Amino acid sequence: MDKSLFRYIWRHSKRDQLIIFMVVIASLPFYYMSLDLPRKIVNEAIQGRAFEQGRQTAKFLDISISLPAWLGGHRFDFFEGFEVGRLHLLFGLSFLFLFFVLVNGAFKYWINVAKGALGERMMRRMRFELFSLALRFTPETLRTVKSSEAATIIKDEVEPIGGFIGDAFVQPVFLGTQAATALLFILMQSVWLGLIAAAVVGVQLVVIPRMRRELLRLGRMRQIASRRLAGRISEVIDGMEAVHVHQTARWERAEIGHRLYELFDIRFRIYKRKFIVKFLNNLLAQLTPFFFYAFGGYFALQGRLDIGQLVAVIAAYRELPPPLKELIDWDQQRLDVQVKYDQVVAYFAAEKLLAEHAEEEAEAQDMELVGPLEVRHLTILDAHGSALIAGADLDLRLPARIGVAAETGNAASVFARLIARRPVEFSGEVRIAGHDLTEIPASVVGRRIAYAGVEPILFPGSIRDNILYGLRQRPMTSAEQSELDRRLQEAKRTGNPLDTPEADWIDLSRSGAASREELDDRIVELLGRIGLRDDLYRFGLGGTINPERHPELAERLVEARERLHRRLEEEGLSELVEFFDPDRYNQHATVAENLLFGVPTSQSLTGRALAGDIHFREALDRAELTQDLVAMGARIAETMVDIFKGLPLGHPLFDQFSFVHADELGEFEKILKRLGMSGRGGATREDRERLLALTLPYVEPRHRLGLLDEAMMERLLAGRAQVREILFRHGRNDVRFYEPDSLNPAATVRDNLLFGRVNDRIADARERVRLIGAEIIEEMSLRAGIERVGLDHQVGPAGRLLTSPQRAAVNLLRCVVKRPDILVVDGALAAFGESRADAVLDMLTDETAGRTLLVVLSNERRADMFDVLVRFSAGGGAEVRRREAAGSVPRDEAASAAAE
Amino acid sequence: MTLDSEVLSLRQVPMFRDIDPSRLKLLAFTSERIHFAKGQRFFSQGDAADAAYVILDGCAEVVLDNPGGPVKVAELGRNDLVGEMGILSDSPRSATVIATEPSSALRIDKRVFLELLSQFPQMSIAVMRELANRLERTNAQLLSRSPRPV
Question: Region Disordered: which residues (chain A) (predicted)?
Answer without folding.
Answer: 881-900
